[in-house]
């Protein structure tokens, strides 16, 4: 039996139509092809599926034993997508009720989908690979269409747009330090803007920003305390930066000689670390509160505020030591106290979680978050 395998590596079929894959059989495959063509007529995977149906019908007319199926991966990446395709091929092979040896004809729309061929070959012998190429006019409209597809296709964003954007940034970087004549400045600025745009499209920064705004809106409507915690933490961080700069300026005014880089970092840290630590504790407490409300709190989450305090104690002591405001005895005590605070908090919550989990397993179901 010949198995006609239509490969959709990034799962356009499932994402755009909601079809459960793999799709096996002539009628279900045709239904899936029509659904995908209706949802997105420009998707090249439509042609792949119809090509598989064409091959199936052609071989059926010759009285050959043949079956057609559509297998998909996902849009997470090559490794995960290839593994998912392999799992779906196993499902298709298990569903075939035939005593004949099964071979496969793989149909794809390009080299990206053909990367899964070794995965398929490890499960079934491959008689051939057919790549579907759509004929189109080579004119200005098709060029615009191609560029638009490249900008929108998640498969080509990372592999084409990001390197191209980096190349476009090389020219404006080369102008730094040279005389910025008007033509060179205009070309450099244009190249930089285009490079940043391509990199942002390649990294999907616009989509990520939209998703972050949507998450923030949902969190606000859901009454999540992390929203308030993040706002307060942002204010505390700003206050910390101002306090650190003020401390640095005070050190420069009280020092007769020039302040070195190490002393500058120590002064800024000494003035800002308590504010930044307060911001970190605020965000961790907000997250812990939301986890508790959502009934998903785990004991180890409670370590976060204590770890922040431990790190703050150590950094504060080190900064004060480099500013000659404390001696080695104070530094040693602070380092010991910070270390012990982190260790004690870790052991305390680990023991508490272990004992409450054991009591829950041996008796009634016990929720450690409500203990």
TrEMBL record:
Keywords for the protein's UniProt record, in alphabetical order: Membrane, Transmembrane, Transmembrane helix
Pfam families: DUF373 (PF04123)
Highest taxon of source: Archaea
Membrane-crossing segments per the record: 158-177, 183-200, 221-242, 304-323, 330-352
Protein name per its UniProtKB record: DUF373 family protein
């Amino acid at each position: 039996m010949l198995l006609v395998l239509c490969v959709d590596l990034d799962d356009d079929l499932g994402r755009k139509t909601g079809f459960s894959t793999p799709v096996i059989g002539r009628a279900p495959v045709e239904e899936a092809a029509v659904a995908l063509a209706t949802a997105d007529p420009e998707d090249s995977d439509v042609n792949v599926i119809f090509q598989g149906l064409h091959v199936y019908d052609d071989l059926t007319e010759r009285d050959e034993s043949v079956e057609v199926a559509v297998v998909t991966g996902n849009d997470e990446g090559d490794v995960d997508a290839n593994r998912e395709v392999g799992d779906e091929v196993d499902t298709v092979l298990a569903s075939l009720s035939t005593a004949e040896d099964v071979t496969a004809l793989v149909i794809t729309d390009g080299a990206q989908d053909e990367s899964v061929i070794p995965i398929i070959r490890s499960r079934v012998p491959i008689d051939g690979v057919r790549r579907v190429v759509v004929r189109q006019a080579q004119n200005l409209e098709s060029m615009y269409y191609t560029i638009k597809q490249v900008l929108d296709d998640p498969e080509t964003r990372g592999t084409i747009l990001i390197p191209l954007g980096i190349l476009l940034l090389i020219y404006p970087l080369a102008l730094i330090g040279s005389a910025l004549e008007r033509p060179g400045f205009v070309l450099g600025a244009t190249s930089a803007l285009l490079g940043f745009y391509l990199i942002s499209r390649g990294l999907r920064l616009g989509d990520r920003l939209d998703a972050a705004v949507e998450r923030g809106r949902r969190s606000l409507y859901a009454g999540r305390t992390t929203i308030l915690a993040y706002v307060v933490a942002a204010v505390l961080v700003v206050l910390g930066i101002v306090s650190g700069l003020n401390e640095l300026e005070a050190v420069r005014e009280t020092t007769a000689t020039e302040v070195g880089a190490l002393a500058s970092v120590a002064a800024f840290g000494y003035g800002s670390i308590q504010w930044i630590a307060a911001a970190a504790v605020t965000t961790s407490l907000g997250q812990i509160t939301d986890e508790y409300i959502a009934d998903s709190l785990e004991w180890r989450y409670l370590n976060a505020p204590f770890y922040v305090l431990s790190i703050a104690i150590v950094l504060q002591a080190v900064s004060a030591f480099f500013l000659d405001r404390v001696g080695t005895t104070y530094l040693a005590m602070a380092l010991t106290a910070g270390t012990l605070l982190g260790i004690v908090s870790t052991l305390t919550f680990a023991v508490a979680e272990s004992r409450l989990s054991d009591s829950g397993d041996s008796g009634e179901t016990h929720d450690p978050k409500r203990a």
